[in-house]
User: What shape does this take?
Amino acid sequence: MAHIHEKIDFTVEVFVVYQGKVLLRKHDKYDIWISVGGHVELDEDPNEAAIREVKEEVGLDVTLFDNREYFEEGDFKELIAPVSLNRHKISDTHEHISLIYFAQAKTDAVIPEKETDEWRWLTKEEIEDFPELREQVRFYALKALN
Assistant: This one.
């Protein structure tokens, strides 16, 4: 999707778990292993973006990790809080504020967005021994498995 703002965008990162494994994908533009995710669009909240991005990128239906206490009244909607937030540079002129979520998949039957997409379900041991992983991805992938 196009950027909502030229200087900064909100994004979601979703660490999807299924039966003791976490799903990681190789980003086609940056050639790095990361979680599933993308930009929050103008007409959606971050929870909707997280669920949509997982469905679009890997074809999975997920349930976000939810530790909230519910309060809903009228048009007040309680959102599932991310497990973490970060702000990082994408380029010299653009940044992302990323909301990180953990999610449970109902199956491990990935349907990639493109035939050339690379993805892997990894165990804790495989994550620990995966030399191509950035440390922040390793950190959150391991936390998601706990």
Remarks:
- The radius of gyration is 15 Å.
- The mean pLDDT is 92.
- The chain is about 20% helix and 35% strand.
- Residues 33 and 70 are 35 Å apart (CA to CA).
